[in-house]
Amino acid sequence: MNYKKMKKVELHVHLDGSVRVPTLAELAGITIEEANAKAVAPLKCHNLADYLTRFELPISVMQTKENLIRIASELAMDLKDENVIYAEIRFAPHQHTSALTLEEVVDAVLEGLAKVDLKTNLILSMMRNDSLERNKQIIDLAKKYEDDGVIGVDLAGDEATYKTSFFEGLFAYAKEKGVKYTIHAGEADGEVSIADAIRFGAKRIGHGIRIISSPQLMEYVKENNILLEVCPTSNVQTNVVSEIKEHPINRLVHSGIKVCINTDNRTVSNTTLSDEYARLNQAFDYTEKDFMTFNINAINATSLTDEEKASLINELKSN
Ligand SMILES: [Zn+2]
Q1: Class in CATH terms, 8-303
Q2: 8-state DSSP, 94
Q3: 193: left (phi over 0), alpha (psi -120 to 50) or beta
Q4: Residues 6+ apart with CB under 8 A from 296
Q5: What is the CA(7)–ligand 1 centre distance, in A?
Q6: Among residues 159, 187, 229, 276, which one is catalytic?
Q7: What are the pLDDT digits (tens) for 23-49?
Q8: Considering only CA atoms, which of 19, 2, 18, 22 is closest in space to residue 10?
Q9: Is-contact 12 229, C-beta < 8 A?
Q10: Is 147 exposed, middle or buried (0-12, 13-18, 19+ CB in 10 A)?
Q11: What residues flank ion ligand 1 with Cβ within 5 A?
């Protein structure tokens, strides 16, 4: 199966983790080899915190409008090139404000995405190690851009150190503002983290795979149509899973839980969405029909209008 040719959607891809290596090298004034060594994580990191160190180089060059425009447009090109027809791209605006305002950062990323004929929306990530006040600014920012390319917010960062339970007030604020959210949970921390995210009202969970240890929570997620944004290669690298063949996705799918497939970070995880499909096909014999189901799950879990969802599903089926 040629997965590159197949139409796909992606809901969980970080902009800063998906900067082309030659672009990183050029913008940082280093060699491709050096950029590779700094930004691409090995097949096995010690843990999530170790994996997250690979974001230092990309973030260091993502501090000007010009670079943000270029990096966003290159990601959109790369997605379009492998027949992604809709993508939700996430990044943490506060990490790009050494010389820019939050609005200038979002405007630059939107300008870059608009250069490519691909339907996209942004998810603005709040960081677990940031203050409540700074994270609230991201919710306000998402509200400000809700009709202009921002579809919601996310919570990212070191889940093992900064527990999901700390953020109840933050998501109450998002709810009050009417801003939609997905939360990274059940990656570096266990089922309690996922239960907290669900308690805060998340209808989508980034990763969520450690739910496998809780049959009760699995039942709840299934009954309530909560989507797990699964990123297989990334989970192997952060050592949540030993290898793809051991990935809980297959047990989740067979228990009736809705999942979608994602790269997480094209550069840090040295992958593409087509690669992720190929690896899952090899490990679990997933067919084109299975991938279609995962893509439809993804579209149905977005905050797009019913009309937009129907149009994307039609496009997927025109493969
Ligand atoms: Zn992620």
Answers
A1: alpha beta
A2: G
A3: alpha
A4: 313, 316
A5: 22
A6: 187
A7: 999 999 999 999 999 999 999 998 888
A8: 18
A9: yes
A10: exposed
A11: 264
Q: What is the per-residue pLDDT across 99-132, written as a single tens digit (0 to 9) for each?
A: 999 999 999 999 999 999 999 999 999 999 999 9
- What is the number of residues in the chain? 319
Q: CA-based Rg of the chain, rounded to a whole angstrom? A: 18
Q: How far apart are CA 40 and CA 35, in angstroms?
A: 8
Q: Is 187 among the catalytic positions?
A: yes
At 105 the pLDDT is 98
Separation of alpha carbons 124 and 112, rounded Å:
16
Q: Is the pTM for the entire model greater than 0.85? A: yes
The domain ranges of the chain are 8-303
Residue 287's Cβ-count burial label (10 Å; 0-12, 13-18, 19+) is: exposed
Q: What is the DSSP letter of 265?
A: -
Q: Are 31 and 276 in contact (CB under 8 A)?
A: no
Structure tokens at 191: 């089922």
Could you tell me the distance, in angstroms and rounded to a whole number, from the CA of residue 115 to the centre of ligand 1? 25
Q: Ligand 1: distance of its center to the CA of 178 in Å?
A: 23
pLDDT band at 188 (very low <50, low <70, confident <90, very high): confident
pLDDT, mean of residues 251-272:
98
Question: Is the alpha carbon torsion for 116, 137, 269, 286 positive or negative?
Answer: negative
- Tokens at 284, concatenated: 């679990």
Ligand 1: centre distance to CA 92 (Å): 11
